Amino acid sequence: xxxxxxxxxxxxxxxxxxxxxxxxxxxxxxxxxxxxxxxxxxxxxxxxxxxxxxxxxxxxxxxxxxxxxxxxxxxxxxxxxxxxxxxxxxxxxxxxxxxxxxxxxxxxxxxxxxxxxxxxxxxxxxxxxxxxxxxxxxxxxxxxxxxxxxxxxxxxxxxxxxxxxxxxxxxxxxxxxxxxxxxxxxxxxxxxxxxxxxxxxxxxxxxxxxxxxxxxxxxxxxxxxxxxxxxxxxxxxxxxxxxxxxxxxxxxxxxxxxxxxxxxxxxxxxxxxxxxxxxxxxxxxxxxxxxxxxxxxxxxxxxxxxxxxxxxxxxxxxxxxxxxxxxxxxxxxxxxxxxxxxxxxxxxxxxxxxxxxxxxxxxxxxxxxxxxxxxxxxxxxxxxxxxxxxxxxxxxxxxxxxxxxxxxxxxxxxxxxxxxxxxxxxxxxxxxxxxxxxxxxxxxxxxxxxxxxxxxxxxxxxxxxxxxxxxxxxxxxxxxxxxxxxxxxxxxxxxxxxxxxxxxxxxxxxxxxxxxxxxxxxxxxxxxxxxxxxxxxxxxxxxxxxxxxxxxxxxxxxxxxxxxxxxxxxxxxxxxxxxxxxxxxxxxxxxxxxxxxxxxxxxxxxxxxxxxxxxxxxxxxxxxxxxxxxxxxxxxxx
Length: 638
What we know:
By secondary structure, this protein is α+β, with helices and mostly antiparallel strands.
């Protein structure tokens, strides 16, 4: 017998060699029916994995992120099996992973899939689900694995196997006649995939390399219940209406042009919003002792080689040669420039924590196929800060940073989840320092969130240190990667940073990289979809549009406009010779919070006729009363 500690801390004894699924059945038949995968000592494993020693075990269902991914990964196999049944050897398989929302599979095809093809594939998938095929896992020696894939005429699979290190376990999953090279994990049978939808197909490159074969990528989503799929498809339709790229054009906020791929043109209204957010960000940081600076856009490769970015990040940088033949790069991040500010004078323990913030424009050389409106761009403003602390200050500093995040997100009514991202394979520096940094972050999260109330994303840290990622949910329940807090022991060592400690000796500070909005561009894109373009009054680029009914009312409209502008209210006057009903509809389409109707009664009474985006027709009130009303509404967000 072996002892198994469950997620709630309780312990059970199970027969040595029991699978995760058998343990789930021992706990509850219901849990076993809903199980997708398991986590043994923090590592996600297939339900078929045997338990041979004492361990900690968590049974993963569709409610867990890792459980969803096992379910979606299995559905990608069902889709691939359906396509092979329909098209045979004319289709070559490549890879089919789960992603944040569903799955995709890349196929080498003779011609792109059409909508009719996708419908046909879905019908074949339904048959496979109805067959309730058992999914089995087995391993093969390298030579046998290559032979099998050659016999099945799958050259991409052969390539993947040949690149695996010698001695690497090579696993396969079978479901009926379908055999797939895969590390897993997968659910137990095809019958559990009760509801699915193929969403779209697009072109992709093998290995993401533009010089390699063009493939056809099919995206899909699946759920264990039909009602969950219906909810998701409703959300997708709602998301289309809220698409920030569409609303950005309609509301005159921003646009993209082929002359500058991945770089937004900000219209006056959109840039007004940008500045409102920047002012909010500055106010919250200034009162907490942050000092804002600005650095060069272009730095010598010498700086990037010292920081380690040249070795770890060069392919994502815009690199050029200056007039003297020296290598330069547009900065993809601000940390080395912050370090240069730190190095301008001798620092003391009395100076720490030292917080240098900046919102400089940065550039990243994203592939064109990865660009996605404001969500994935090549040029953006990151709400950065690099905080220099003593080791004893790390925990308090991170708590303070997360308090700022909580304050900022609460303004928008956004909830967030924290994720600890640990050491990646290409990490830089001493293992002991990594262990120390990860331990500190875990301690902070345990204290702030409580144990097991945050996620752990193994291997997704930055190359110079572990990080806490801030993920928020919008009004549609969609999750977005937002800010990040990273503990860095490496860069201060690489740049020989120091401060004079209480004993008069030089010590190396710890550097905390942090961004809370992530980038102002991306954050505005998210807010545009969250609010469907109907921004709260304090953030709206135009808060009030004045609508004179006739030409004779224009003079009064301009007088009211002056009164509003004096107190900082952002206004527009619609002086077009159009009917008032048309002007009102136009203002509603522009999602302006308030319209002021100005006619004879308003001129005579020195008042305004108020129409609210949310309340409808408010009625006639004095100018002073309206100013008081809107100022109160704007101030309430603080």
